[in-house]
Design brief:
about 5% strand, single chain, 6 helices, mainly alpha
């Protein structure tokens, strides 16, 4: 193979590899969107609630299980990957329904600590088995070995993405 042909082959291989990476990214987005949309639909139909409400209750329950007495709005927004502004009205409604409790932070009275109430825990507990079953059904086409492999590969991908974020961009 000539040097010119080798360079052209290398460029084509990089282009094909880049296309494969974009295809994989789009496939991940598609899978995520399909699951999220179906979970949203089922929460609405079966429990007359929304995914953001479920996610808030689930994160507050996780904090409780981690023995954290509650989360600030900033901590909750970071865990949910949304802005504080997106959470404010939702937390207000959940507090009015007595599903969450807001208390002033002992260290900074300007901050609120949000925690799950017993009613919020009962509400979440009523939805959690169905949620788990829905996700299991959607992922049911994979064997246990494929789940383990997918989990490992997604972990490796997450590490690769995080590592690339800390490196300067090529210009």
């Amino acid at each position: 193979m000539t040097q010119r042909a080798a360079r052209r082959s290398s460029v084509e291989t990089k282009a094909e590899s880049g296309q494969a990476m974009v295809r994989n990214w789009l496939r991940l987005l598609d899978c995520s969107t399909l699951v999220e949309n179906e979970v949203r639909r089922r929460l609405r139909v079966q429990f007359d609630t929304t995914l953001p409400r479920f996610d808030v209750l689930a994160q507050l329950d996780l904090a409780r299980r981690e023995r954290v007495p509650g989360l600030t709005m900033s901590e909750l927004s970071r865990r949910l990957m949304v802005t504080n502004a997106n959470l404010t009205a939702l937390i207000e409604r959940l507090a009015q329904e007595r599903l969450v409790r807001r208390a002033a932070s002992p260290s900074d009275k300007r901050m609120s600590i949000i925690s799950l109430t017993p009613a919020g825990k009962r509400t979440l507990d009523a939805m959690t088995p169905a949620h788990r079953e829905w996700v299991a059904g959607m992922f049911g086409g994979l064997s246990p070995e494929e789940h383990a492999e997918l989990y490992a590969l997604l972990g490796k991908l997450r590490t690769s993405i995080r590592d690339s974020l800390s490196q300067p961009e090529d210009d």
